[in-house]
Amino acid sequence: MCNDEVWMDWLWAVKALLGGGDWTFTTETIGTSYMLRGDALVSNQSPVATDPYNGDMWDQEGPHIMMLFPTREEIAHLPRDPNAGGPYVMWDAWPLVHVMFPMTDRDR
Q1: How far apart (Å, rounded) are the C-alpha atoms in residues 80 and 55?
Q2: Can you say whether residue 85 is alpha, beta or left, with left for phi > 0 and alpha for psi between -120 and 50 degrees?
Q3: What percent of the chain has pLDDT over 70?
Q4: Is it the case that residue 59 has pLDDT exceeding 70?
Q5: How far apart are CA 78 and CA 1, in angstroms?
Q6: pLDDT confidence of residue 12
Q7: Quick one: CA torsion of 48, 54, 56, 60, rounded to 10 degrees?
Q8: Mind giving me the DSSP string for 48-78?
């Protein structure tokens, strides 16, 4: 995983959230990160979900780029479904919302 400074701030917010501490995240600039080895199985709806049978949409993305945007208007037109093909929004109901850009085509 490789992160710019904005993503490092985002990761500290995720760590605080998962640890039960106080957390906030906002950005005034676009942030970029990539995971060339892919990711673990995660809920596309919630960063705190742990049960893959909870009714959320779960996905295990392969290599991907991730971007953070200052406003939701910039990502309003993107799908929230990781199976839609192409970029999609993850954790839309949270201030930790970001866009996933899959780098490989795969059968969904």
Answers
A1: 15
A2: left
A3: 96
A4: yes
A5: 24
A6: 95
A7: 70
A8: T---TTSSS-EE---SEEEEE-S-GGGGTTS
Compute the distance between CA of residue 25 and CA of residue 7 in angstroms, rounded to an integer: 10
End-to-end Cα, the chain, rounded Å: 24
What's the confidence (pLDDT) of residue 104? 82
Report the candidate in 35, 52, 32, 34 with the shortest Cα–Cα distance to residue 44: 52
* Rounded Cα gap, residues 84 and 24, in angstroms: 30
What distance in Å separates the CA atoms of residue 12 and residue 16, rounded to the nearest whole number?
6
pLDDT at 108: 47
Residue 89's H or E segment, with its range, is strand 88-90
- Bridge partners of 34, per DSSP, are 2, 65
Distance from C-alpha of 97 to C-alpha of 10, rounded to nearest angstrom? 10
8 A C-beta contact, residue 61 and residue 102: yes
pLDDT (tens digit, 9 = 90+) per residue, 17-33? Answer: 999 988 899 999 999 99
d(CA 91, CA 97): 5
Bridge partners of residue 88, in order along the sequence: 100
